[in-house]
């Protein structure tokens, strides 16, 4: 390999090592821990939880059943069932609704997780058919749901819509979209992998959000820092049927106590902190804007301009490998991690990254963010392939 050949694998190894050595981290989830470190962390986080002296779970009883009850209580639903993955939970939920409505067509956004990241599992495994209310990179509107040209049995709404920039509708828009589905005699399912951080944007609690839908899926490792796992919540009859399908799909795992314990710890530790993360994400986003403007970036995009949750996208007119090198080398030399991995966009020379504001970012002031982000950008040479702007004149045009 020559010095001019970009090696993503080597860059990833450097990024992980630099992040592990960092004393300050602005963005990320901390998934780089070793097995031993994660075991020690789990023991420390769960030391005060009740029921540790009871036997481990077997096929979903014990600590798993306790977690299910906790989720149902938090969401205000009749019941909840633990699933090893969200992919399985959502397939089961929508398969159950298809049987009950008599319609196997699901309306969802083309950027939603089942369309982007599940290898066509809806159709290949569960026999479901998908229609798209819109192809715009935003949540669908009530008018678009009403205007679908064919019947559909269920409307699935991803809250927030991650691949569009962690976007959420307003509370009023969400209510109207749900009502539009009801007018079409369809049930409503919330793809709530990151539902936990939505109350700040909507201005209502989790039970009020969940009450709009017929079923809700939530994740335990996104937002809550768990190991793995998900829950499907809704009416007791639906959850009972979902448990049967969970077994058929191979999800009735013999023991799941590590994931359940980590989820319970995350609900205790992270759920109360999420509003502070969401609030601080707005501070971080504004500080990054200031850094980009003062650094002479030809143009940039914050998506959304004001974060809806504690996560948002940053788009810059540089190749991903140049941004990765600048970010990693800065972390190696200063023990300060600002950005995670950069992803190339379809437009040559334009890249984006996802910023996740968590506990490690709360100690960062706006000045800290401006200084560190500006220092990363200064590492990119002028000839590193700046794009022509991709259609935007400058940063101010995007805000």
Automatic annotation (TrEMBL):
Record keyword Membrane present: no
InterPro entries cross-referenced by the UniProt entry: ArAA_b-elim_lyase/Thr_aldolase, PyrdxlP-dep_Trfase, PyrdxlP-dep_Trfase_major, PyrdxlP-dep_Trfase_small
Top-rank lineage group of the source organism: Bacteria
Keywords of this entry: Lyase, Pyridoxal phosphate
SUPFAM superfamilies: PLP-dependent transferases
Domain Aromatic amino acid beta-eliminating lyase/threonine aldolase: from-to ranges: 60-290
GO MF term set: lyase activity
Cofactor dependency: pyridoxal 5'-phosphate
Family: Belongs to the threonine aldolase family.
Protein name (database record): Beta-eliminating lyase-related protein
Native species: Streptomyces roseoverticillatus
